[in-house]
Amino acid sequence: MKDYYRFLYRCFRVSFVGDWRYKAWMLLLSCIALFGLNAYAQQLVDGLAVTGMTDQVSWGLYIANFTFLVGMAAAAVMLVIPVYIYGNKDLHDLVIFGELLAVAAITMCLMFVTVDLGRPDRFLHLFQRFNFPGSMLAWDVIVLNGYLLLNVHICGYLIYCAYQGRRPTKKFYIPFVFLAIVWAVSIHTVTAFLYVGLGGRPFWNSAIIAPRFLASAFAAGPAFLIIALRVIGTQTSYKVPRGAIETLRKIVTVALAVNMFLLICEVFTEFYTDSAHGASAHYLFLGLHGYSGLVPWIWTAIALNTFALAVLFIGPLARSAGWQNLACLAMIVGIWIEKGMGLIVPAFIPTPLGEIVEYVPTRAETMVCLGIWAAGLLLFTIFVRVTIPVLSGRLTVDQRYNFVSSSSPTK
Question: Domains in the chain: how many in total?
Fold first, then answer.
């Protein structure tokens, strides 16, 4: 235990070491997170009235971000499968970065759920009346927290073994890795079922929601990892295997193509049948009775995803790092809009009584969201900052580490 506590202490110290770029990035994220905390304090005092949510639209930007980030967390499995099932050696060391992203994403998910409740003490009501297995919300609580614990164990064990300079014992992590594969699929499927099971919201009552969730998750998550790995490869001394990003690009391309196909199938079903339940889809894509608040959002998302898919399919552009990064960024934003504002809000418009009350996020709501994203990125940055010296052998139990800041964030 003494060695483990010393390991945690050294990791804590490493997180404060870096050049001016690292410190500027951490300062920026810290400031945004503090502004977000201030906005949340205002919400705690004045209630959810400071947000744009109403009795008609009871889920907004908070649950939109929650839905997107559940997919980001599930995307860690897209590194695990090629490594442990197909034996892809290029991605072997990078599995840890995917798992670290999952930990940061699930942490943000829990924070978004907390701020959406209005008052944190309402969690007590959830646990007093857990209603398992009848409640999909109870299932969601179990799978999210279970997935968080799985990834914390896998990452922590592998990094600590690398710190001690010994090979990890397979029985202590391999079973958990394969369990995490199933669990990653379950967290997004259960979240999808949470929406699909609400019979009073016809916009969500589609069997295709869960497959769309998984396809979009396996596109946006690896896309974020591609950008993160490029930053790690250029700003640190850690050498990202050449074939790793190419493998991730292929995964992203297939997943995005499937996601776009499923979107086309859903749009065809809604508009070709022209049923009474298609009012929400009409509001989202074309506007309804003069209300069109989400129309620019969804068409922007479609344009961004189409652009990303075109870049990834065109050989010369797909092999260019710059175009690839641009496509990944466009894809992340496009899927965030599609799974967030384009999925959550339209289900409430029009209401079962036929009312049309549009939703617009407020400044306080936006600041809380930015603060949570900054906190999550801060957490992920610290994880990566600590992991790189351990994996490269410069921070071990027997090796003295230079904690004095230098020109390189990895020295």
Answer: 1
Q: SS3 of 227, please?
A: helix
Which neighbouring-strand residues pair with 365? none
Backbone angles phi, psi at 67, to 5 degrees: -65, -45
User: Could you tell me the two tokens for 303?
Assistant: 């344009």
Nearest to 157 by CA among 390, 410, 403: 390
- How big is the CA angle at 256 (ends 251 and 258), to the nearest 5 degrees? 100
For every residue of 11-30, DSSP letters joined together read HHHHTT---HHHHHHHHHHH
Q: What pLDDT is stored for residue 85 in this prediction?
A: 67
Q: Which amino acid is at 98?
A: G
CA distance 296 to 282: 13
User: Does residue 141 lie within any of the structural domains?
Assistant: yes
User: How far, in Å, CA of 72 to CA of 306, rounded?
Assistant: 20
Q: Which of 409, 330, 392 is nearest to 14 (CA)?
A: 409
Cβ contacts of 387 within 8 Å, gap of 6 or more = 96, 97, 100, 159
Count CB neighbours of 277 within 10 A: 12
| Least confident range of 92-96, 115-119, 392-396, 400-404 | 400-404
In a domain, 342, yes or no: yes
Decide if 2 is inside a domain: no
> What would the pLDDT profile of 222-257 be if each residue is shown by its tens digit?
899 889 888 888 877 778 777 788 888 888 999 999
Cis status, amide bond into 133, omega within 30 of 0: yes
Decide: 58 and 357 in contact? Cβ < 8 Å. Answer: no
Which structural domain range is residue 368 located in?
Answer: 21-391
CATH of the domain at 144: 1.20.1630.10
Q: Is residue 399 part of a domain?
A: no
Provide the whole-model pTM.
0.90
CA distance 1 to 12: 17
119 phi and psi, to 5 degrees? Answer: -125, 130
